[in-house]
């Protein structure tokens, strides 16, 4: 079993690499090779039980893609993307990476004539616009960002290439990942992790929305577990649409904070400064959270049981030492 | 008002060109230039009341697209496509024309920085797969052909380029056009026109399905009237999704034939030979016909009043002399 993770340098790619390297098998076969590639060389996987390599790959460049997708690959995880805010600011770059990059990977996979499994991460950013709530398995995709558009197009391509037998694709629309490790960034959703992560690290954080703000969340640990399950699903079970929501759970900001307090005591919540920011509120109020992922739940994917779990996972997996 | 019809050599492009050339105005302004382009030089428009030109254009080639979309264009009709059966057989060509061609046109329009109106013809082939009937304005697009996939992607691109202000796009999913003039072709839907057209021309035709087969139809005359209305819609009225169904009507084969008999007498129906063809039946039984185009009806687009009208339009507009 030869696995390639494209986007292996990101939060999800690194955690997926670690899980696979510990697990040692996928789709009933021993992992004999695990390669992580990204636009910059990904960090190596510590204590790997399987052979792990890292390399650079620019998916916008077909030659680079051909160089990193070898003929003997069995499973390709395509996680690489220009994120939402960047794709909105740099229209050309967003289309080059998120649309043409996806097409380059699918074309290379098709050229191999081995129909490799391709696991593609889409996003709940494909939802929005005129579509009524709740979001069901057959709700229209009406993205209101270029990132969401590019992900929706990637889904369409994945299903068509699978229908033709060129790849065995499966795509999952990721909820907002929280608690996300690392640093705050300029994404409008950044606070959805930072109001927990920074206080748990003993630092102050700003919450720009009200405590009754609702959103749809999944822990990074559960996300990569679902990505492993996603690769292992029977193609026959996927039906005529290879893409689906990945399960998450709806929580309010108040519920997130109460969960943090339940796990880590009252001190962290005191480090949250409430500073209402109308522009952030305007953006995130257009995001959908009432999602009903019936198909993926039926196929065995799952959400977190409680946000307390999300907090515990952060403390166990990601909190910096000291 | 400078109008360009890309795909101006096809059945819809030619009829649209004639309607615009007779009408003489669009969006409240006099038509000062009307250009029809296609992969081969389109037929000229007879008795045009406005200046008409024709030229060749290969939309798969960005340089060709730049050559035919001048800086002073106001309205671009993008009708050109590799049709369903051909896109299914020639995967590369389908993507080159239907996906990259659409992208090339949108990119050229964006480069002009004038936000021209772009009217895009999609197809009810975007529907299928797992999506429950009836098809509503917010039904998921789950195409089961590469052609349908490419059209669905074109829709997504049109909405995103419009959201960014690069074009003022509007897309319409065309019903099956009948009675279509010209010759029978290898499309699985070919019989939906030929069982009427050939008998009306005094020739025999084969019907490969049962008389209770239901489908969703629109006359070519009504189609181009809707495409004119589509260009004239206020951008504000279109909302956050620039693409919608074009209205059609559901009829059985029996209703089509009865309408022909009502208009043209009993002789034509006698020229239909019933020859059940399992492969054609298999393909067309997967097509959706229970469509509810609420949005476009509300915006003033319309379907035919009766299939008798479709028959009359064919006799008035298209039946070869003699």
UniProtKB/TrEMBL annotation, chains A, B:
InterPro entries: DenD, Epimerase_deHydtase, NAD(P)-bd_dom_sf. Signal peptide: none annotated. Keywords: Carbohydrate metabolism, NADP. Residues 3-203 form the NAD-dependent epimerase/dehydratase domain. One of its GO terms (molecular function) is oxidoreductase activity. NCBIfam families: ErythonDh. This is NAD-dependent epimerase/dehydratase domain-containing protein. The lineage of its organism: Bacteria, Pseudomonadati, Pseudomonadota, Alphaproteobacteria, Rhodobacterales.
């Amino acid at each position: 079993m030869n696995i390639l993770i494209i986007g292996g340098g990101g939060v999800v790619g690194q955690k997926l690499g670690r899980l696979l390297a510990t697990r040692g098998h996928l789709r009933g076969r021993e992992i004999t090779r695990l390669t992580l590639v990204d636009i910059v060389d990904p960090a190596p996987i510590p204590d790997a039980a399987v052979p792990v390599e890292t390399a650079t790959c620019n998916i916008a460049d077909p030659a680079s893609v051909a160089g990193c997708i070898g003929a003997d690959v069995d499973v390709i995880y395509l996680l690489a993307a220009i994120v939402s805010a960047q794709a909105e600011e740099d229209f050309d770059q967003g289309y080059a990476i998120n649309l043409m990059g996806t097409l380059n990977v699918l074309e290379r996979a098709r050229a191999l004539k081995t129909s490799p499994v391709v696991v593609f991460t889409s996003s709940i950013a494909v939802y929005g616009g005129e579509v009524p709530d709740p979001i069901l398995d057959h709700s229209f995709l009406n993205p209101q960002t270029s990132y969401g558009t590019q992900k929706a197009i990637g889904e369409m391509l994945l299903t068509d290439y699978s229908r033709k037998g060129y790849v065995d694709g499966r795509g999952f629309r990721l909820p907002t990942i929280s608690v996300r490790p690392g640093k705050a960034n300029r994404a409008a959703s950044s606070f959805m992790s930072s109001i927990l992560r920074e206080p748990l690290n003993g630092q102050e954080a700003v919450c720009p929305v009200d405590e009754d703000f609702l959103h749809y969340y999944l822990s990074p640990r559960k996300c990569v577990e679902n990505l492993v399950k996603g690769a292992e699903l029977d193609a026959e079970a996927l039906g005529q649409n290879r893409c689906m929501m990945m399960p998450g759970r709806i929580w309010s900001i108040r519920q997130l904070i109460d969960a943090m307090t339940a796990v880590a005591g009252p001190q962290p919540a005191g480090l949250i400064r409430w500073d209402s920011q109308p522009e952030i509120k305007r953006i995130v109020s257009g995001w959908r959270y009432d999602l009903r992922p019936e198909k993926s739940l039926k196929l065995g994917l799952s959400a977190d049981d409680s946000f307390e779990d999300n907090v515990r996972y952060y403390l166990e997996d990601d909190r910096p030492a000291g």
